[in-house]
């Protein structure tokens, strides 16, 4: 079942790149008591994700945060090393690059993308959500392969 507006996020431990390497971080640490804009991509360094999705959030990070968002998180079913390198390559200093390496959190959200036909294995669907104190207040899923309803511009209109 796919998570929906009004649902609490499931508890999970994900990974971010820390000063000494990959470090665990819980959904509680990321979302409790905060307003967060989380967006997920099928894969770091892939064309739509690198040319359109992440750059939209990078360019608009200040505006998004000025709208009352405490943090912007980019998540992918990739490892913390890849997410860190991609964030650096994209100048995404204002964005938390979150790794769901095994896809466990993505699976718990019900937002798994079967990309085996493209040689990518199991990934995350492209989506964006606004989360307030751990509860989903908006959820947009791009079902058609484009970057439309989960774009930075679309999500900014919901803030």
Automatic annotation (TrEMBL):
Database matches in Pfam families: Redoxin
Domain Thioredoxin as annotated: residue spans: 3-159
Residues at the catalytic site: 49
InterPro entries listed in its UniProt record: PRX5-like, Redoxin, Thioredoxin-like_sf, Thioredoxin_domain
Keyword Oxidoreductase in annotation: yes
Cellular component terms (Gene Ontology): cytoplasm
CDD domains attached to this UniProt entry: PRX5_like
Catalytic activity: a hydroperoxide + 2 glutathione = an alcohol + glutathione disulfide + H2O
Entry keywords, A to Z: Antioxidant, Oxidoreductase, Peroxidase, Redox-active center
GO terms of molecular function: thioredoxin peroxidase activity
PROSITE patterns found in the cross-reference section: THIOREDOXIN_2 (PS51352)
EC identifiers of the protein: 1.11.1.27
Enzyme class: oxidoreductase
UniProt-listed GO biological process terms: cell redox homeostasis; cellular response to oxidative stress; hydrogen peroxide catabolic process
UniProt function note: Thiol-specific peroxidase that catalyzes the reduction of hydrogen peroxide and organic hydroperoxides to water and alcohols, respectively. Plays a role in cell protection against oxidative stress by detoxifying peroxides.
PANTHER family: PEROXIREDOXIN, PEROXIREDOXIN-5, MITOCHONDRIAL
Family of the protein in this entry: Belongs to the peroxiredoxin family. Prx5 subfamily.
Protein name per the record: Glutathione-dependent peroxiredoxin
Upper lineage: Bacteria, Pseudomonadati, Pseudomonadota, Gammaproteobacteria, Cellvibrionales
């Amino acid at each position: 079942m796919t998570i929906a507006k009004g649902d609490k996020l499931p508890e999970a431990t994900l990974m971010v790149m820390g000063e000494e390497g990959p470090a665990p971080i819980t959904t509680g640490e990321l979302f409790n008591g905060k307003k967060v804009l989380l967006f997920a991509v099928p894969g770091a360094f892939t064309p739509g994700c690198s040319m359109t999705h992440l750059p939209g959030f990078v360019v608009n990070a200040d505006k998004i945060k000025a709208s009352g968002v405490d943090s912007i998180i980019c998540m992918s079913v990739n490892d913390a090393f890849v997410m860190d390198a991609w964030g650096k390559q994209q100048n995404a200093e204002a964005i938390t690059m979150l790794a769901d390496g095994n896809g466990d959190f993505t699976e718990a959200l019900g937002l798994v993308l079967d990309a085996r036909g493209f040689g990518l294995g199991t990934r995350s669907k492209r989506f964006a959500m606004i989360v307030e104190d751990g509860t989903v207040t908006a959820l947009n899923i791009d079902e058609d392969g484009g970057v439309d309803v989960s774009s930075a511009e679309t999500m900014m209109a919901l803030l």
